[in-house]
What we know:
single chain; alpha/beta; 2,3-Dihydroxybiphenyl 1,2-Dioxygenase, domain 1; four-stranded mixed beta sheet; 8 strands; 26% helix; 40% strand; globular
Amino acid sequence: MKIKLNSIFVDNQDKALVFYTEVLGFIKRNEIPAGKFKWLTVVSPDGPDDVDVELVLEPNVNPVAKTYQEAIFRQGIPITAFEVEDIHAEFERLKERGVIFTVEPTQTGPVTIAIFSDTCGNLIQLYQV
Length: 129
């Protein structure tokens, strides 16, 4: 058993694709029409092609999921986390691209974290061990 897919809900798949590829730097892996929406995944440019975990940009049309997404956002809780090698450099790179951070790089024990909005209804945490 292995983790291959991780889904996050987004309020607009096209907007999410632009943010996750053009701003964060991920690579689109799949964009397959699926009725009104699409099966849309991105991967890290640093991961191996054959085993990397894909991030599914899931359309948030389920009322229960939408309520959950909005509530967790309001509470300031990140929906997922991405590891980085140099959090201060990544923070500066993303700030230059207009990313809004709710938490600037902060030491929390053995890790440093930062949290930003993905413009699609989610908070994302960056961390460096």
